[in-house]
Every structure is written in structure tokens, then in C-alpha cells.
Amino acid sequence: MEDILKQMLSELKDIKTDMGELKMGQARLEIGQQTLQQNLIESLGIYTENITEHVDDKTEALNKRVYNVESELERISRP
Fold first, then answer.
1. Can you say whether the dihedral through the CA atoms of 36, 37, 43, 47 is positive or negative?
2. With bands split at pLDDT 50, 70 and 90, how would you rate the model's confidence at 1?
3. Could you name the domain of life of the organism this protein comes from (predicted)?
4. CA 68 to CA 28: how far, in whole Å?
């Protein structure tokens, strides 16, 4: 009977150790998830800024072309 109790106690200690390791692992995963979310948000912000700059540059170039064409048409239209 005493051997069975010792074995049960040993198994309970092992379970307690495993639970502690699981809790530490979960904490690491949660920290990793938070870091990943922050990195994703920052990356999306940078990516959005790059897209906005690109669109602004292309819009500016198109506006210059339109202005040049309008100016040329106006010049040609004058007698």
C-alpha cells in the first residue's frame, strides 16, 4: 500500500512539473503572439504609406501630363 502511495505521489509531482512547463510555454506563446501582432500592424502601416506615396507620385505625374496636354490644346486652339 505504501508503495502505491509513493508511486501516486511521484506521478502527481510529475504532473505538477508538467503543468508548470505548460504554463511557461503558454506564456511564451502569448508573448510571441503579441509581438507578431505588433509587427503585423507596423508592417501594414509602412506598406500602406508606401502605397499612398506611390499613388500620389503617379497622380502628380498624370496631372502634369494632363496640364501639358491642356496647355498644348489651348495653344493650338488660339488663332
1. positive
2. confident
3. Bacteria
4. 60
